[in-house]
Every structure is written in C-alpha cells, then in structure tokens.
Write a sequence for this structure.
C-alpha cells in the first residue's frame, strides 16, 4: 500500500507546469517573431505645404498675425486710440509704419505748406459748379497742390537717403502721403505731431 502511494506522489511531481499568460491588454503584446507595434498618437497631421507664391505669402501673413496676437495683450478701445496718437509701431496701420514715413510726418509737421489750406477749396469747388470761372480757378489750385506734393515727396526722399534710410518708395508716393497729412489740422493728425512748426528735423 505504501508503495502505491509513493508512485502516485512521484507521478504528480513529474507533471510539467504550464506558464501563466502575461497580464495586460492583447494590443500591447506582439506575436512571437514580430516587432512590437508602435503606439498610435492622436497628433493632428501638419497642413500641406503652400504650392504657389500667393499661398506662401498668405501663410506667412497668417503666422505673423498669430505671433503678434500671442505676444501682446488685447488693448481696450481707449488704449488703442492712445497708442495710435503716440505713434506706437505695434498698432499703426501699414501705411504709417517705417522710419521713412515717420520722417515724412515730421517734415509735414515742421513746415508750413499750401496743402494746409486744402479743406478751404472744397466749398469753393462746390460753388464752382455754378460759376465756371471759379471752377477753372479751383482746378488750377489743385494742379499747384499736386506739384507741391511731388516736390515735397522728392525732398523727403533725398533727406531719407542722406540719413542712410533705405526706401523703395517714389517721390510721388511719399508726396501723396505727405499731402494727405498736411491738409488736416494738427490736432486731427494721427499719430499726433511730435515736432513743432519751424523745428529742424
């Protein structure tokens, strides 16, 4: 009887044990002989690259606007108006930006020009529709103002070049910019004048 029990115990001890399966999700384990699959990420695919020059310019403009908005706080209407008056470059329109345009504003604000009286010509122009002679006179005055603008623009451009400022603007472009500022009253000009009449610039 003891011999039978001893053989039964030896038989049980010789039975091989099977390894327990690894814990964890089935997706995390790779089949034998294959590389472990990479975990998928939820990253958004990058936008397609611009194909034309127009698309590239629009993309650069969009990125610059995002960086500009991210780098500065949002101004209230009152703060924005005050910044424009002070000539803050971060809020100025594109037509007012740059050292050459700032030089043009200083030139206009420090010189007395015939264009300062341009607003007085508009009532005269309205009356000129009824009186042909006044209409001819008004057109002649507008021609003189146009010549003044071109002369002023060429002078501003020479002054900018003499100070080492690089610009691609023509004398006509600078002249029209100067004339569009000159016919406003000093208190209406934006940015506000930073030089007085007669000051050297």
């Amino acid at each position: 009887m003891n011999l039978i029990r001893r053989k039964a115990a030896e038989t049980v001890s010789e039975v091989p044990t099977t390894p327990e399966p690894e814990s964890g999700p089935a997706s995390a384990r790779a089949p034998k002989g294959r590389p472990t699959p990479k975990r998928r990420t939820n990253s958004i695919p990058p936008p397609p690259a611009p194909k034309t020059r127009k698309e590239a310019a629009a993309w650069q403009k969009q990125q610059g606007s995002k960086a500009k908005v991210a780098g500065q706080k949002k101004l209230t209407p009152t703060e924005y108006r005050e910044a424009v008056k002070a000539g803050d470059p971060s809020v100025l329109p594109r037509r007012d930006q740059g050292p050459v345009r700032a030089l043009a504003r200083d030139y206009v604000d420090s010189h007395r020009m015939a264009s300062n009286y341009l607003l007085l010509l508009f009532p005269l122009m309205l009356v000129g529709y009824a009186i042909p002679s006044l209409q001819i006179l008004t057109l002649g005055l507008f021609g003189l103002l146009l010549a003044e603008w071109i002369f002023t623009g060429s002078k501003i451009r020479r002054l900018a070049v003499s100070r080492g400022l690089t610009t691609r603007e023509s004398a006509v472009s600078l002249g029209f910019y100067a004339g569009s500022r000159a016919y406003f009253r000093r208190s209406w000009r934006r940015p506000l004048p930073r030089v007085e009449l007669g000051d050297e610039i």
Observations:
- The chain has a mean pLDDT of 77.
- Residues 132-162 form the longest helix (31 residues).
- Residues 137 and 143 are 10 Å apart (CA to CA).
- Helices lie at 2-13, 53-71, 77-86, 99-110, 121-128, 132-162, 171-182.
